[in-house]
Amino acid sequence: MPKGAITSYIDVAQLVLYAFWIFFAGLVFYLRREDRREGYPLESETRGGLKGWDWLFLPTPKAFVMADGKTVLVPRPEEGPSGPLKAEKREIWPGAPLEPTSRTDARLGDGVGPGSWARRTDTPDLTWEGKHRIVPMRIATEFVVSDRDHDPRGMRVVGADQAVAGTVTDIWIDRGESLPRYYEVDLAARPGTSVLVPVVFADVQGSHRTVAVEALLARQFAEVPPRREADSVTIREEDRIVAFYGAGTLYATPARQEPLL
After folding, report:
1. Cβ neighbours for 196, distance < 8 A, ≥ 6 positions apart
2. Alpha carbon distance 20, 18 (integer Å)
3. Angle subtended at Cα 35 by Cα 34 and Cα 41, rounded to the nearest 5 degrees
4. Rounded CA gap, 52 and 17, in Å?
5. pLDDT for 189-225, tens place per residue?
6. pTM of the predicted model, to two decimals?
7. What is the rounded distance in angstroms from the CA atom of residue 205 to the CA atom of residue 143?
């Protein structure tokens, strides 16, 4: 019998290999359960509502203490759909694409497809110092626009139809990352009413003193989800605002839903 062999067929190296396989399989199973803490249980495509609790593949709820002292349980089995889905399946088979049922303009806020958003906490994001993270430059006076860049404040904002939607009145800064996140736009159709435009959807054309936003038509800016406070934005409001512009990339006009060829 070779040295280190338990029997003539199994040695220590084989046992170590088998132990590693068992450990690795257990690790994969554990990680796959843990990544189901957000977005689970799933909604049923056939009857609506949440599917039943899966005791094997869903982890037991774990309490997380947030920075503000609140405790959050995840998964949250009590948190179901936010309302009736304003869409219907194009085919009967599971996983079929959804078709919004609202008229074209209303689809932008229905939370379907590229306009989907999550029900995140309805409080502003904070910095390590406890200050609101995303605020306008009229609040974050320590920030300035570089002389090498075009200052969009005072520029007109035009939609995909080249009509004027409003004028940029301020820049909202991310204090944590030291970069701009939104442009605040005073609407031409509703003077005194402002909405936020994510900078990733805006093209600042300094030579023309114009900020072009191809995601929306000019009239659709009036339907951008509002903010509860004039000088702050909550995490949930951010999700809804960005989702609105995302929906515009597909639903702003009927032609955008048609094939290119």
Report:
1. 172, 182, 183, 184, 185, 224, 227, 233, 241
2. 5
3. 95
4. 38
5. 898 999 999 999 999 998 889 999 999 999 999 999 9
6. 0.81
7. 22
